[in-house]
Design brief:
16 strands; eight-stranded antiparallel beta barrel; Glycoprotein, Type 4 Pilin; mainly beta; OB fold (Dihydrolipoamide Acetyltransferase, E2P)
Length: 170
């Protein structure tokens, strides 16, 4: 089965060959993926390298926190991907929110209302479980709201920043 995945600004073609083998952009990987009993935690072995991640299902994407970095991951099966291409649809319009993937303390807020950001730009640094996590813009746009300040305590799923279309401000 073939999938098209966008991780921040990078696009990948992923083909699931067998239960423990995938091909990503033509390169084969041996994998073992396990959903852990703790909510949202996942364990992944890729070519015998062990990784752990916090994975959260969003409206039309997944938020993956791995090794202190937050990734926005959009996945489409081959049929959906090709239909979207044929229709010229893009998911990069409308309002985007940066939410806290877990409870923590805001260490820094490099984003300021009115700033123009590109998808993947660092907008918040959140400390959680003694690790600094860089939260990045999920899309291109203008920062229209910054709802936290340095030192603030935040809860999981709390909206931290709102990003709107550059043309409309919506």
């Amino acid at each position: 089965m073939k999938y098209y995945t966008k991780v921040n600004n990078q696009e990948y073609e992923i083909e699931i060959d067998h239960e423990h083998e995938i091909t990503v952009n033509g390169e084969k990987y041996v994998i073992d993926f396990q959903q852990l009993p703790d909510a949202g935690l996942a364990s992944l072995l890729i070519n015998n390298q062990s990784l752990e991640a916090v994975v959260e299902d969003q409206d039309e994407s997944w938020e993956v926190l791995m090794m202190g970095k937050l990734y926005t991951v959009k996945v489409q099966d081959e049929r959906t991907y090709r239909l979207a291409l044929a229709r010229g649809l893009s998911a990069d319009s409308g309002e985007g929110e940066v939410k806290a993937p877990m409870p923590g303390i805001i260490i820094a807020v490099p984003a300021v209302v009115g700033n123009v950001v590109k998808q993947g730009d660092k907008v918040i640094i959140l400390e959680s479980m003694k690790m600094e996590n860089e939260l990045r813009a999920p899309r291109d746009g203008i920062i229209t709201q910054v709802k936290v300040t340095t030192g603030a305590s935040v809860e999981k799923d709390q909206v931290l920043i709102v990003i709107s279309d550059p043309e409309t401000g919506d």
